[in-house]
Specification:
The protein is an alpha/beta fold. The protein is built from 17 helices and 15 strands. A hairpin with a 2-residue loop joins strand 4 and strand 5. The longest helix is centred in the N-terminal third of the chain and has 14 residues.
Length: 424
């Protein structure tokens, strides 16, 4: 049901405020303003999915876009180039921090507001959905005096939340922590945070070179984007600094390969790398209205082969007054690799990918993202279909288990069972 506003009698200022407040109350992460020749369509992203919210008429379209650009400190006369802005304000007692982006398209300017929520970072690592085993690995990794720890995943997978939670854990008076970020998303008292400004030459790489002369104990790099940053970060980690950063890769194996592709020397990477935390976000089932149902043969087969666990039931979303269609927020599924000496030697000696996979997942007892997700589905935290949606099954399984891969990827199996796990 689309929301209606009294466009004739309510000022545009109040309409914009109401859209933002309502989106925050609905737990939205983004607000999209999509121009068309006749209207401005408003959509909000809840639990990872965009839903229609309102249609702004043509007569109000330009004024509403202008209002958003004004409060975002954008240039309202520039409509031909993309712009970035930010909104920091208090509405109805809520302290709001938002990032705003405008993009010229054929029908006008598309504007997206990202609503930043730091509440999870403030609550600590223990609230981020890590299994007990993975949480213990992370706590051990962050106690080391030097080395590099990477958090990986796609855009919007909660990497920044995890990194900030680790920084909160490490933030002590006796430590000098310096970050270089683009942008600085969350200001933390006691931590020295540098904002990247590429237009004046203050890049990740140049800032990082200066940071090394600031006697740091812990360095956080917002993102490893290029070869130079990767090399400097790796060298910093073997000269007595603990380095935290993020990188866009799918899992531990891909992360190692990506860093080597960035011309990081094998002997340096083998010495420096301490841990990799990979994650993806899935919808979280509402604990108040979820209900058990009989598992399909496909689900039983997959879970038996991946986890060696026998199940007969799984949970379904239902829907109640406290959730949206049976879901309430999102939760990460994780893969945490703690580097041991055998893996270090394998990286240094250029061992082939399949042998490295065996060292990572079998000998190092690493729980893959697929395994962690299926465990959460069994426990009623998320849905089986959600795990299939976000995991790269072929990559997670590797190339050595053809029987299992065919079970999961066989087109006939998926077609026969697709309706079973999508009709909820």
């Amino acid at each position: 049901m689309l929301k209606n506003f009294d466009y004739d009698n309510v000022p545009v200022v109040d309409i914009v405020n109401e859209i933002i407040i309502d989106a925050v109350k609905r737990r939205a992460s983004d607000i999209h303003f999509d121009p068309t020749p006749t209207t401005l369509n408003v959509r909000i992203r809840i639990d990872g999915e965009l839903v229609d919210y309102a249609k702004i008429p043509y007569s109000v379209k330009k004024n509403l876009s202008t209002r958003i650009k004004i409060i975002s400190n954008m240039n309202i006369t520039e409509t031909r180039l993309p712009q970035d802005g930010a909104i920091k304000t208090t509405l109805e007692g809520m302290n709001l921090d938002m990032r705003v982006s405008s993009l010229p398209i054929v029908d006008g300017e598309k504007i997206v507001i990202r609503i930043l929520d730091y509440s999870m970072s403030m609550q600590g690592l223990e609230t981020l959905g890590f299994s007990e085993e993975n949480l213990n690995k992370i706590k051990k990794m962050i106690t080391i005096p030097n080395g590099i720890i990477l958090v990986t995943g796609a855009t919007g997978s909660g990497k920044s939340t995890t990194v900030y939670s680790i920084l909160q854990k490490l933030n002590r008076p006796e430590s000098n922590i310096i970050t270089v970020e683009d942008p600085v998303e969350m200001k933390i008292p006691g931590i020295n945070q540098v904002q990247v400004m590429s237009e004046i030459g203050l890049t990740f790489a140049s800032a990082l070179r200066s940071i090394l002369r600031q006697d740091p104990d812990i360095i956080m790099i917002g993102e490893i984007r290029d070869d130079e940053t990767a090399r400097i970060a790796t060298r910093a980690s073997i000269t007595g600094h603990l380095v935290l950063s993020t990188i866009h890769t799918n899992n531990s194996l891909n992360t190692i390969e990506r860093l080597l592709d960035m011309d990081v020397e094998r002997y340096l990477l083998g010495s420096a790398l301490e841990g990799i935390i990979s994650q993806r976000l899935v919808k979280k089932l509402c604990p108040k209205c979820r209900r058990l149902r009989k598992a399909t043969p496909y689900e039983i087969n997959v879970i038996k082969k991946v986890l060696n666990t026998d199940i007969t039931e799984l949970y379904n979303p239902v829907g109640c007054d406290e959730c949206l269609n049976g879901y309430i927020g999102r939760i990460p599924i994780h893969e945490v690799l703690q580097i041991n000496q055998e893996i270090r030697d394998a990286i240094t000696n250029n061992i082939n990918k399949e042998k490295l996979r065996e060292l990572v997942y079998k000998k190092a007892n690493t729980t893959s993202i697929l395994e962690d997700g299926l465990k959460k589905a069994i426990n009623g935290i998320t849905l089986f279909a959600e795990i299939l949606r976000v995991t790269d099954i072929e990559e997670d399984l590797g190339e050595d288990d053809e029987e299992l891969k065919q079970t999961l990827l066989g087109k006939n199996i998926i077609k026969e069972n697709k309706e079973d796990y999508e009709v909820l």
